[in-house]
Design goal:
single chain; mainly beta; six-stranded mixed sheet; 48% strand; four-stranded antiparallel sheet; 0% helix; 114 residues; globular
């Protein structure tokens, strides 16, 4: 299983970004997928999960109403639309096959700063 995240960058508070994650080496369309993030020195934080059929399975309170998880099974791709970003959202973002972060990729850095 390989997961490759992209789409991070530097954005001002209140801005938006869309992260992408492409999966290789497994039946992506069968798997519940998850976004997690990590700040250096802190534990991995679960953000959101999505069922294989596209139904979301919930969001962390810290991102509810601002972030939206989605997927395109035809493209083996998972997305995270992030709106109204806050400095506290600064972290490395990973897609994974579990809330614990199993099989996560190298991550993509998101920095929210003015």
């Amino acid at each position: 299983i390989q997961l490759v995240e992209s789409g991070g960058g530097l954005v001002e508070p209140g801005g938006s970004l869309r992260l992408s994650c492409v999966g290789f080496g497994f039946d992506f369309y069968r798997v519940v997928m998850t976004w997690v993030r990590q700040v250096p020195g802190k534990e991995l934080e679960w953000l959101a999960s999505i069922h294989s059929d596209g139904r979301d399975l919930g969001y962390a309170d810290s991102v509810k109403g601002r972030f939206t998880i989605s997927r395109n099974n035809a493209r083996n791709t998972l997305y995270l639309q992030m709106n109204n970003l806050e400095p506290e959202d600064t972290a490395t973002y990973y897609c994974a096959t579990s809330r614990k972060g199993d099989n996560r990729g190298q991550g993509t850095q998101v920095t929210v700063s003015s």
